[in-house]
């Protein structure tokens, strides 16, 4: 492994679920303390998450980190918010027609379909899956008519199921085709499978932030855990994966730290960045 120059790090970005948050949905006191020290050094700190930007703006208050968050990359990279530059951007939503087509492809399976918008999770039916997701994420959900709702483009589609059915969802994904629109899909959690525009990735969103600050990937340190963190871990100057991370994402990590319940972010930042 090449030697890493930690002195080049000007911005630290963390995934949220399974990374920054413990399994109890909090930021540990130690990690919070270390993040404060990192920002005191003049290093930018932010979140890069599959959650939508609107809900994250509210949840950072609940997590006690609002004053330390300089930037947010939301919805897997299609939304950015830079508080230091007063910039917000949204890119590459999915056509409603495409989302309807995806839903038809999976609707015979034991799943529910979720479209996040402005901090609310919209679903076509009420079930145990959406109740659990809304509770875990600490956000509201609403049941509505998707036929009407999907007359407009939406940022992404999430397919929610149970760990046992996930293998069927992944297998079914291999046969989805739409002649008019392109899409990309991947598993983002043990119970979540997501579709988005193929131009969208966490790396895409992070690059927008770096450009605003005249920084490059070598100035970036990221923390992640799941398969949807693979690209940013691979591309960042320093890519760190949690001990609880996926095998795929660990395969491209520069470092593997403690798990999300053992101050993984705090331990690493304290050792290498402070």
From TrEMBL:
Q: Where is the signal peptide?
A: none
Q: Which PANTHER family match?
A: HAD SUPERFAMILY HYDROLASE-LIKE, TYPE 3, PHOSPHOSERINE PHOSPHATASE
Alphabetical list of Pfam families matching this protein: Hydrolase_3
- Name assigned to this protein: Cof-like hydrolase
The record, for PROSITE patterns, names: COF_1
User: What is an example of a GO molecular function annotated in this UniProt entry?
Assistant: phosphatase activity
Q: Which GO terms describe its cellular component?
A: cytosol
Superkingdom of source:
Bacteria
């Amino acid at each position: 492994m090449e030697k890493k120059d930690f002195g080049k790090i000007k911005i630290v970005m963390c995934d949220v679920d399974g990374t920054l948050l413990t399994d109890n949905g909090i930021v540990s006191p130690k990690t919070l303390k270390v993040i404060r020290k990192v920002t005191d050094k003049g290093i930018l700190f932010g979140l890069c998450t599959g959650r939508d930007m609107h809900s994250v703006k509210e949840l950072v208050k609940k997590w006690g980190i609002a004053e330390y968050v300089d930037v947010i990359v939301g919805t897997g990279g299609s939304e950015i918010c830079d508080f230091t530059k007063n910039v917000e951007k949204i890119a590459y939503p999915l056509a409603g027609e495409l989302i309807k087509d995806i839903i038809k492809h999976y609707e015979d399976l034991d799943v529910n379909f979720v479209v996040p918008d402005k901090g609310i999770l919209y679903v076509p039916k009420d079930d145990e899956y959406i109740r659990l997701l809304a509770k875990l994420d600490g956000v509201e959900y609403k049941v509505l008519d998707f036929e009407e709702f999907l007359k407009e483009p939406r940022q992404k589609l999430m397919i929610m199921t149970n760990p046992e059915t996930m293998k069927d969802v992944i297998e079914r994904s291999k046969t989805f085709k739409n002649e008019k629109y392109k899409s990309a899909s991947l598993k983002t959690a043990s119970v979540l499978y997501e579709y988005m525009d193929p131009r969208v990735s966490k790396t895409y969103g992070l690059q927008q932030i770096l450009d605003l600050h005249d920084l490059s990937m070598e100035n970036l340190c990221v923390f992640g855990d799941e398969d949807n963190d693979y690209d940013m871990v691979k591309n960042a100057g320093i890519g760190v994966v949690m001990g609880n991370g996926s095998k795929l994402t660990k395969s491209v990590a520069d470092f593997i730290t403690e798990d999300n319940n053992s101050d993984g972010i705090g331990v690493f930042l304290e050792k290498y960045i402070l």
